Amino acid sequence: MNTTENTSAATAGTPGPAAGSQAVSAGHSRVPVLTVRGLTKTYGSGDTAVDAVRSVDLDVASGEVLLVMGPSGSGKTTLLLMLGALLRPTAGSIAVTGRDNRDVDIAAAPEKHLPALRSHTFGFIFQDYALLDALTATENIAVAANLAGTTGSAAHHRATELLDRVGLEHRATARPSQMSGGEQQRVAVARALSNDPPVLLADEPTANLDASRGRDLARLLRRLADEDHRSVVIVSHDDRLREIADRVLWLEDGQFRQIASMTIDPVCRMSVERTGAHLEWHEQTIWFCSEGCKREFAENPDSFQP
Fold first, then answer.
1. Which of 113, 103, 120 is nearest to 197 (CA)?
2. Are 293 and 278 in a shared domain?
3. 211 lies in the same domain as 299
4. In the chain, N or C: fewer CB atoms in 10 Å?
5. Are 123 and 235 within one domain?
6. Whether residues 47 and 94 fall in one domain
7. How far apart are CA 214 and CA 207, in angstroms?
């Protein structure tokens, strides 16, 4: 899914700092599921007002894996919470197409309608798994199915099917405290699928996983997008997720920026702009996210791959 052609197209479609009003589109080959226009979230007012997200336009297509990266405090989580109707935007629209092919502007929907919209439209995957330790893996998934309207034996059957799909049917009666981090996150993915949502929203899904389990989780998300034509939006610092993404967008100061101008910090492996901390090494200019990473590289440059 991640050819050079796809990467180039993703880069070309990413608006720079001066192009914030342009929609970041997935192209014409897929049907949009999320259509965002002018999305803004402002905290405070007057002289103390801070725009966490500023006039963001975005299209997310059916079956697409979109990765949004950026430094801490850039607005990634705020954006994700607004997309999932967990946080009200200050301005803008978020049109989502449900399984019934009806479009709803969740930014304008009455507050009392939001729980039902969330329970039928989105699946959420969190960094800390957010499983209930008093419940088994099967019960954690069944409870989520209950909230979406599936109850009794049907909910239990749905949970069993989903555990099989994520490769954890043998852990059906285990509680979260009896599972590894990778197993807990796969249960969390199964729970997110319990309502058959058209959109999965993942906040740093690999942050608590080692390299091997992180790759396994990433490939699972890619497979769910491909097999189910399900949209997956991920916000993360984890550069490993690039390999499964159709597009990678860089969010900084609440706006999308040109990812073509980014490079990789060889110490922390984060994408960074070609400004700020840097040094010359083997006739190359190496850029860093901070002076700390620069010092660490300078102490032993041969231990890092620039």
1. 120
2. yes
3. no
4. N
5. yes
6. yes
7. 8
pLDDT digits (tens, 9 = 90+) for 240-289: 898 899 999 999 999 998 665 567 788 877 667 777 889 999 888 998 88
pLDDT of residue 17: 33
Q: How far apart are CA 41 and CA 62, in angstroms?
A: 25
Q: Place 8 in a pLDDT band, splitting at 50, 70 and 90.
A: very low
Best CA proximity match to 1, nearest among 224, 231, 226: 226
Average pLDDT over residues 175-192: 96
pLDDT of residue 259: 63
pTM: 0.77
| Of the candidates 55, 56, 194, 203, the residue with the CA atom closest to the CA atom of residue 128 | 203
Q: CATH number for the domain including 71? A: 3.40.50.300
Range of the domain at 210: 4-261
Using 50, 70 and 90 to split pLDDT, how confident is the model at 24? low
| 301, two tokens | 């440059």
Q: What is the pLDDT of residue 25?
A: 54
* Other CB atoms within 10 Å distance of the CB of residue 72: 9
Q: Cβ distance 94 to 39 under 8 Å?
A: yes
Give me the pLDDT at residue 14, please.
Answer: 36
Domain count, the chain: 2
Cα 37 to Cα 107: distance, rounded to the nearest angstrom: 11
Q: In 10 A of CB 249, how many CB atoms?
A: 25
How many other C-beta atoms lie within 10 A of the C-beta of residue 128?
Answer: 13
Residue spans of beta strands (DSSP E) within 188-282: 199-203, 231-235, 247-252, 255-257, 262-264, 271-273, 278-281
Pairing of strands 65-69, 247-252: parallel
In this structure, are 165 and 305 located in the same domain? no
